[in-house]
Amino acid sequence: MRQYELMMILDPSLAESDRTALIADIETELAHAGAKVVAADHPGERELAYRIHGSTTGFYLLYTLDKESGDFQTAIAAFNIKTNIWRHMFVRLDD
Fold first, then answer.
1. Quick one: what percent of the chain has pLDDT higher than 90?
2. Is the pLDDT of residue 70 over 90?
3. Do 35 and 88 touch, CB atoms closer than 8 A?
4. How far apart are CA 35 and CA 44, in angstroms?
């Protein structure tokens, strides 16, 4: 198994219930892509390096994942459709 890291920035203006539902959708998409969540960290609202959609803050999520191969195309396609997910990036961790 290889380990990957997923960093996401969500819309900080989401209500707590909407954010919780979005996080559950994200974790479901990761499971459908064949990834197992090893660790999840939600640092919360942080200052952005540059404005996104006019906002100077974003809600951060960080996941450590286990997966056989690095094909996250189904999850990426689902994330691109959701307008409340502003940015996402998968990174393969060193073996």
1. 88
2. no
3. no
4. 23
- Are the beta carbons of 61 and 10 closer than 8 angstroms? yes
Residues spanned by the domain of 32: 2-92
- The total domain count for the chain is 1
What's 33's domain CATH number? 3.30.70.60
SS3 93: coil
Mean pLDDT of 61-70: 89
User: Three-state SS for 1?
Assistant: coil
Structure token digits, residue 21: 């539902």
Neighbours of 14 (CB within 10 A): 15
Q: Is residue 15 scored above 80 in pLDDT?
A: yes
Tokens (6 digits) for 34: 């064949």
pLDDT band at 1 (very low <50, low <70, confident <90, very high): confident
